Amino acid sequence: MRIDAHQHYWQMDRGDYRWITEELPILFRDFLPTDLQASLQKHRLDGTIAVQAAPTWEETEFLLRLSDENPSILGVVGWQDLTDPSHRERYEQFSKHPKYKGFRLMIQDMPDANVVLASSYIEALSWYEREDTPVDLLVKEGQLNSLTKLMEKVPKLRGVIDHIAKPRIAAGEMEPWLEHMRVLAGYENLSCKLSGMVTEADLQQWQPDDFTAYVREVCELFGPNRVMFGSDWPVCLLAASYDQVVEILEHALPAAWTDSERKRLFGSNAQAFYKL
Q1: How far apart are CA 129 and CA 122, in angstroms?
Q2: Tens digit of pLDDT for each residue in 243-264?
Q3: From CA 46, how far away is CA 83, in angstroms rounded?
Q4: Which of 63, 250, 268, 270 could make a disulfide contact with 76, Cβ separation 3.0–4.6 Å?
Q5: pLDDT for the residue 84
Q6: Does domain 3-273 have CATH number 3.20.20.140?
Q7: Domain-wise residue ranges, the chain
């Protein structure tokens, strides 16, 4: 099974995508499964993991309804508010749906990433750790120290780092991103999505080689069993087409990787991580 492990759908009149404004005209419209179908077929992808793009439970419900109508949505990663006393009840409610596959912790949007080290977060994530719940971790390079400290508290969390933690690709800088990623790769339940890279590069003048060092470091650190392909469509359209995103990754992969290792990257790892 070939899987795009990270993409989004949205419907603007729902009104909870506050980050999508007219200043982003490429994104300021509806994006639904029919818009992605041709790309999935071209790249022989059997389906996708649809990831939340709005910090509301209502959007999670919207994605689950879409998944009922569209077989190409293999799983949904929803939103969760770990500070809400009802978060477990919400999780249990969503988990009744066969395509609900966990939630995303949006550290990126926190003014102070150390908030995740508060006792309320540790208590909540410890519960999800025991439940073996898949948790997407949306984090920026400058917040990796906080994520490292969090993993010390929940070392067996079934987590996946989104967008290779957004290193400063446009500036061509590797550190301190690489130092933190070395530590995080030591947690055997932690995976990494090779996704969201084009929007961290120069949006207009990126070159395929801009991404190679970052991709190969992630592949070396996490190995072929803990990496996943994600297009980050349609956000990727700010810098590149779906085809270009696939081409960039294919160009950057270690030359020695076998067909079997590539199959894991493009599907079976996501299948296992999200318990599809």
Answers
A1: 10
A2: 999 999 999 999 999 999 999 9
A3: 36
A4: 63
A5: 94
A6: yes
A7: 3-273
